[in-house]
Write a structure and sequence with these properties.
The complex is a heterodimer of chains A (about 500) and B (about 575). With about 500 residues, chain A is of the alpha+beta class. Chain A is built from 13 helices and 14 strands. In chain A, the strands form 4 sheets. Chain A has a 5-stranded antiparallel sheet with strand order 4-3-2-1-5, with no helix packed on it. Chain A has a 4-stranded antiparallel sheet with strand order 9-8-10-11, with no helix packed on it. A 3-stranded antiparallel sheet of chain A has the order 7-6-12, with no helix packed on it. In chain A, α2 runs antiparallel to α3 and α9 runs antiparallel to α10. The chains are: A alpha+beta (about 500), B alpha+beta (about 575).
């Protein structure tokens, strides 16, 4: 039975496809699993151990990553340099000790510290006391701010008087300077009071340092947390990851500028691509005659979809940045010419390039929607006296709107996941300023921007073995995958809904 | 009221016309943007097909005190060069800026640096020696016979013998007066005298092609030379020869054929746009990049094709129809995963296990028949048991689980194999290509799958039913009806997949290591056209040919995918038409 020819055929023709499908599904599952697992690990609470090892002179506090059989990566806190360092050493379980009272701290500058003990003034550390002191500091800061607003006009007047060469003995001057002195004295008092809220941080038994309470951003006790605390802490980490500023120097920080840049670029792109894409689809499906010209347009659209994305980047660089941008600079920004304004990669050129890249997606999706609207509806509208425009505007377009939305969503997903062209036309690894700020004209289209995908790309080339660098990359991957997949899911649901709605007509 | 009605009527139609006009306009915009795209690429890379040119401008007479000689031009030598020196005469030339002297003494070239002999090499019948403005580069005129005179470029690198390259053949009447080499282009200007006429010839240093030349009446010497203009002195006159389109100095021969670059032993295909040494040339040979792209896409197709086509056959024909409705979207999720994430996973995860990955893959492939035979046997057994229905329903889940075990088993076996000393000796050191193949394969498989599945699903159901009705089995129907009918569509899918792999950027860029090597060997590195664009485009110097060549590579990429897309589309349309006749 085993060696018969029929069996062999069956074996080849049925099993090979089955195994191939299995492989494809498996690779999808593995990728998703890997990204989710490694990305979520970035936000988890990792215990801090006390390590006794011959490699270190005394015991150190450390986090253990990748416990292999003979090699494991250790991120240990160096109390002398006050920073985390990574080494690969051999570890056995006996060398690790989990003490309950160990603190992890994050400073405002993004540094991470491990401490054995924290004293808040005279009292031992407690969440409530820390919070109270922080609030107190906040109140002091507010008061100082208020004093400053009072002092500033007085200082101005002081300067005016001395410019008008009013003698110091004049009564106006004396009164003013007395008032100023008084206010400055109050301010100094507040400063001193603010400084009194100090934390004495004990790194080892004999090394300690005094920090101002307001310099410390976060304190946690990883070895002494209940499950609920851990969940709450992880949620806080996710929130800080999404909202805080990216700081290239300190490494571990949030991704807000990249997220913002991606969203802004995608938004601008949508503004450019949607009208043109939708109108083209309407022309092709509703108005255009069946001739060679229209066939040619269709071939062009198919080809636009097939061009490698990097070619769009080269095109954007060659036409927009080097051509149009340079012309614009010479015409309108001649005053700061050696340094380019629009003649350099920027968010405007990036979004136009991406608009061209996603144009076929929008056209195809919209046309698919128009095809699904039954011909009877158009004929009905025309029979009731509507013009062709009215038939399209009031009957066909509302019905095809879910598919137009699908096109928009798919193009957004495509633009968010495409990296190669952006590297040429405007996305950078670190942009000091956001493209939107409070100085006129508020939206700076010529600025470069940060992009989630570019951050991921960069991590491969400049990987450092600093603490949580790689897990942070996977966290960005997780965010990107969640965004892209949820957009795709939304598009699929919308499309299915439309198909269901008009199934009975056709 | 009539008037109002008419106005309303007009308004209605004006809106309609505007709408029609706008929609036609946007279609026009799409077409125009495509044309502009092509035009941009063509115009930016057009200097490759043209040549630089000289333009002569005669300036008014300049008084003698305004004349100045440039330090790097050996203009004073004009008068001193002897007509045809005897063989044993001692010739010497010193670089003005460096303390380097080349001495020709009795059939020996000797190079002195700070009065110390650093290199010698035998060289016959040198009649003239010129220093170049590039350090450690000299030009030699060699007269083998009275008729044939040749120009050589000689350069020296520390701890290496002098190397020479044949550049140009001078005729009997021509006499070389000076050479001006460009510092950022691969060209050299030769100033020649011939029967009372001064000639300026531009040579491409790589291919030794004469790019352009100009003839001037009278005997002139070199005054000053800049990148874009050369001033010649004729008695009291100064004639400026402007040099235009220097970025066009790159030629097609230089781009595609192997050349003996200075510092290399043999003629080679090399891409190196920033030379390490001053005497070296910029090597704009795009063949290594094209080979790299072809290699990467071919090897990834080897991985992707069986998986994608197999999956398409399963989903499009073998699976139950309700399974198809969810299975296709699920696999297409893989298509929407950003390439940069696949690249990251390949570059960090697969790369870390690259030592054992080769043998894991080898074990996987070797054990696959056994695994599948086992699979088929278990399938037969289960089909005859009472769990048949349950088994068929969850066959994919079961296969995925068993595959997971099988993958783990083969990777463990592969790791175990690498501990053998014999295996370690035959393991090639560079296994990046394997990671590229896996990463890129996973990247393009969903595209091929999706198109191929469409083709298979598009086979008319009536044909399949007819086949069953005539008594064919499922396997016979598949191999003789479905695959046969869907073949053009499958071909189109494969072609589009190949185009996708050729144009894929991020995975290749992040994984492949980006060494431009012109070898078809699987175990060497590669640099793809796409990756090269990302690496070099932002920093390309727009003054020399680098940017032009990069735009040409983009054009090559575009044309390649354009041809593939068009032919795939043609296949698909033809197939659709044929099928339309059937139905």
């Amino acid at each position: 039975m085993i060696l018969s020819l029929a069996w062999f055929r069956r074996f080849c023709i049925v099993n090979v496809p089955l195994v191939a499908t299995g492989l494809l599904t498996l690779s999808l599952l593995l990728i998703l699993l890997l990204v989710v697992a490694k990305g979520m690990a970035h936000f988890s609470v990792k215990p801090i151990y006390q390590v006794t090892h011959p490699a270190f002179a005394s015991t150190v506090l450390a986090m253990v990553e990748q416990r292999g059989e003979n090699q494991s990566t250790l991120h240990w806190f160096n109390p002398i340099d006050k920073e985390l360092q990574s080494t690969q050493i051999e570890l056995v379980n006996q060398q690790l000790e989990r003490l309950p009272q160990i603190y992890g701290l994050k400073t405002r500058t993004g540094k991470i510290l491990f401490a054995r003990d924290i004293q808040l003034g005279e009292k031992p550390f407690s969440k409530a006391e820390w919070q109270r002191q922080l609030d107190e500091n906040k109140i002091f800061a507010k008061q100082i701010e208020q004093l400053n607003t009072k002092i500033y006009p007085l200082e101005l007047r002081f300067a005016q008087y001395s410019q008008q060469s009013i003698p110091y003995t004049a009564p106006v001057f004396v009164r003013l300077s007395a008032e100023l002195h008084n206010l400055h004295e109050q301010k100094r008092q507040l400063h001193i009071e603010q400084q009194q809220n100090q934390a004495l941080i004990q790194f080892t038994d004999d090394i300690s340092e005094v920090f101002s309470v307001s310099d410390i951003a976060l304190v946690w006790q990883p070895n002494d947390m209940s499950f609920g605390d851990k969940i709450w802490f992880s949620i806080g980490e996710i929130w800080r990851f999404i909202t805080s500023d990216h700081n290239a120097s300190s490494g571990s920080a949030g991704i807000f500028p990249a997220l913002f840049g991606t969203i802004l670029m995608v938004f601008l792109m949508t503004v450019f691509v949607m009208p043109i894409g939708v109108l083209t689809a309407i022309y092709l499906h509703e108005y255009a005659p069946e001739n060679y010209l229209v066939t040619g347009i269709r071939v062009i659209i198919i080809n636009l979809a097939g061009i490698p994305s990097i070619v769009y980047g080269v095109f954007g660089l060659g036409l927009f940045v080097m051509g149009l941008g340079v012309q614009l600079d010479q015409a309108f920004y001649a005053q700061n010419l050696p340094s380019p304004t629009f003649g350099a990669p920027g968010i405007l050129w990036a979004s136009i390039t991406m608009a061209l890249l996603t144009l076929p997606t929008v056209i195809v999706a919209t046309e698919e929607g128009l095809q699904q609207v039954p011909q009877a509806l158009r004929n009905g509208a025309l029979a009731l006296g509507a013009t062709k425009y009215e038939a399209i505007r009031f009957n066909v377009l509302p019905m095809a709107s879910p598919n137009i939305l699908t096109g928009a969503i798919l193009s957004v997903a495509r633009a968010a996941s495409e990296v190669a062209p952006l590297l040429l036309v405007g996305a950078v690894i670190y942009a000091p300023t956001l493209p939107v700020d409070d100085t006129f004209p508020y939206l700076h289209l010529e600025r470069q921007f940060m992009h989630l995908g570019v951050l991921i790309f960069d991590s491969v080339f400049h990987s450092s073995n600093t603490f949580d660098n790689q897990s942070m990359m996977f966290a960005i991957c997780l965010l990107l995958i969640i965004v892209v997949l949820s957009l795709n899911l939304l598009a699929a649901i919308l499309r299915a809904k439309l198909r269901q709605r008009y199934e009975r007509y056709s | 009221m009539h008037f109002l009605g008419f106005a309303q009527h007009l308004f209605r139609f004006r809106k309609a016309n505007t709408f029609y006009f706008l929609s036609a306009l946007s279609a026009f915009v799409v077409v125009t943007s495509f044309i502009i795209l092509i035009a941009t690429l063509v115009i930016r890379s057009f200097p490759v097909f043209t040549k630089p040119s000289y333009e002569v401008q005669i300036e008014p007479i300049i008084t003698a005190d305004n004349l100045h000689t440039d330090s790097l031009s050996p203009s004073d030598d004009v008068a001193y060069i002897p007509d045809l020196p005897s063989q044993n005469e001692r010739l010497s030339q010193t670089h003005p800026s460096q303390d380097v002297t080349l001495v020709y003494n009795a059939g020996q070239l000797e190079l002195f640096q700070s009065k110390q002999l650093v290199a010698t090499s035998p060289f016959a019948k040198v009649t003239q020696v010129f220093p170049s403005n590039i350090p450690f580069v000299f030009y030699l005129v060699v007269s083998e016979t009275y008729d044939a005179t040749q120009l050589f470029r000689v350069h020296w690198q520390a701890n290496k013998p002098l190397q020479s390259l044949l550049l140009f053949e001078l005729s009997k009447e021509q006499r070389l007066v000076s050479v001006i080499e460009s510092d950022i282009h691969n060209i050299v200007h030769l100033l020649l005298h011939k029967d009372g006429v001064t000639q300026l010839v531009m040579l491409n240093l790589v291919t030794a092609e004469a790019l352009t030349e100009v003839e001037l009446e009278g005997i002139g010497g070199l005054d000053t030379a800049k990148r874009d203009s050369i001033k010649l002195r004729f008695d009291d006159n100064v004639i400026t020869v402007e040099v235009f389109d220097l970025e066009a100095s790159v030629t097609l021969k230089e781009l595609f054929l192997p050349h003996a670059f200075p510092g290399y032993d043999n003629a080679s295909l090399t891409w190196q746009t920033n030379p390490a040494q001053d005497y070296q040339l910029r090597k704009y040979n795009i063949m290594p990049l094209i080979i790299g792209s072809l290699k990467a896409s071919a090897i990834s197709l080897v991985v992707a094709l069986p998986i994608a086509l197999g999956a398409a056959i399963y989903v499009g024909f073998l699976a139950k129809s309700n399974a198809r409705t969810w299975l296709k979207p699920v696999i297409e999720v893989l298509e929407s995963i950003p390439a940069v994430i696949i690249g990251l996973i390949a570059a960090t995860f697969l790369f870390n296990v690259a030592v054992s990955i080769l043998w894991s893959v080898v074990t996987f492939v070797a054990l696959l028949p056994i695994y599948m035979a086992l699979n088929a046997y278990v399938y037969q057994l289960c089909k005859r048991s009472k769990f048949e229905r349950l088994f068929i329903r969850f066959e994919l889940v079961i296969v995925v689980l068993s595959l997971l075990c099988f993958l783990w088993l083969s990777s463990a076996l592969g790791t175990w194999l690498t501990t053998w000393s014999w295996i370690q000796t035959v393991t090639p050191s560079n296994q990046i290509m394997l990671v590229v193949a896996l990463g890129l394969g996973v990247g393009i498989a969903p595209t091929i799958f999706s198109l191929a599945e469409d083709a298979i699903n598009g086979v008319p159901k009536t044909m399949i039913k007819a086949s069953y009705a005539l008594g064919a089995t499922r396997v016979q129907t598949l191999s003789q009806i479905v695959l046969f009918t869907a073949f053009p569509g499958l071909m189109a899918a494969v072609m589009l997949g190949f185009g996708r792999a050729f144009g894929e950027t991020m995975i290749v860029l992040m994984v492949s290591g980006n060494t431009p090597v012109a070898e078809w060997d699987i175990f060497t590195g590669l640099r793809a056209l796409t990756a090269n664009l990302v690496i070099e485009m932002p920093e390309a110097n727009s003054q020399n040919s680098h940017l032009v060549v990069l735009f040409l590579t983009a054009l090559v990429l575009f044309l390649f995918t354009f041809v593939l897309n068009c032919s795939a589309e043609w296949l698909r349309q033809r197939n659709k038409k044929a099928r339309g006749r059937l139905q």
